[in-house]
Design a protein that fits this description.
Helix content: 25-40%
Structural class: alpha/beta
Largest sheet: 9 strands, mixed
CATH superfamily of the largest domain: Cell division protein FtsQ/DivIB
Shape: elongated
Strand content: 15-25%
Distance between the termini: 144 Å
CATH class of the largest domain: Alpha Beta
Order of helices and strands: HEHHEEEEEEHEEEHEE
Number of strands: 12
Oligomer: single chain
Number of domains: 2
Length: about 270
């Protein structure tokens, strides 16, 4: 009987602990330490360079140019921006200056830029006031239909005064306008395009009736025009024709014009009223 030869298992797992490669560990520690030291040195150098540039008189503002302003003076914009001649333009935060300028109620947008080595430019887009809203308190409405500030003595006094609206009619920016507020805004927007038909400076007031619509009161000569709701472009053109005919051709002193129906205009002379 032949005895079978038993083969040894060459792949038996070794229980001996693995040798640690000290050279690799040392190299990794050295590289890591070097990177940290390099980053720290870079940070220190960056701070030193920043301090050198932001404190150098070479970059002090010798000229701050204000563009786009008409209602606000250049000094008004500078005061709002918190800038002065001699300020180092590299130490100024453009975002902070821009936010400060746009915080002024008459400024819709602002853009600030540096012009190296010693100049800054602030470009503003001012709001255009188109009406005064009488809500118990007086507020200004701009060309986008936004209420942007309380009316003050220094504000324009030749704007139409809108009555008949409530605080609940006023929509916050981004929200849908209420129907009566939208009617007022649409009328003012269309009237601006047809300024030749009825100049804005000649309009004293716009009265809002929720059922009957809008009634305009002229400044000089004083007369009223009932517009109702909608179709404002055609009504303004028709109004221009009626006024020319009444005042120049027939010499009628008009007190009231009802143009709610553009095809059936009613004119009332002052003596009748």
């Amino acid at each position: 009987m032949v005895r079978k030869k038993v083969r040894k298992n060459r792949y038996k797992k070794s229980t001996a602990p693995a040798k640690t490669n000290l050279k690799k560990v040392f190299l990794r520690c050295f590289v890591g330490t070097g990177l940290l030291a390099g980053l720290a040195l870079f940070a220190v150098l960056s701070i030193l360079v920043y301090d050198v540039f932001t404190q150098s008189p070479y970059f002090n503002a010798k000229n701050i140019e204000i563009q786009g302003n008409s209602r606000l003076s250049a000094q008004d914009v500078l005061d709002q921006a918190g800038l002065n001649l001699g300020d180092n333009i590299l130490s100024v935060s453009l975002k902070k200056v821009q936010d400060s300028v746009t915080a002024h109620p008459w400024v819709a947008k602002a853009k600030v830029r540096r012009n190296l080595p010693d100049k800054m430019t602030i470009t503003v887009t001012e709001r255009e006031a188109i009406a005064v809203l009488d809500l118990g308190e007086a507020f200004l409405m701009d060309a986008q239909g936004e209420i942007f500030k309380r009316f003050e003595a220094a504000d324009p006094r030749d704007l139409p005064i809108i009555t008949g609206l409530k605080f609940s009619d006023i929509s916050v920016a981004g929200e849908k306008m209420s129907p009566v507020y939208e009617a007022v805004y649409e009328f003012l927007k269309v009237k601006k395009e047809y300024e030749w038909a009825l100049p804005c400076s000649s309009v004293a007031a716009i009265k809002v009736d929720r059922d009957m619509g809008l009634t305009l009161v002229s400044r000089e000569p004083e007369f009223a025009v009932r517009f109702g709701y909608g179709d404002y472009a055609n009504k303004l053109m028709r109004l221009n024709q009626v006024l020319l005919k009444c005042n120049k051709e027939q010499g009628i002193d008009v007190a009231l014009i009802d143009i709610v129906d553009v095809d059936r205009v009613v004119v009332r002379p002052r003596e009748e009223v």
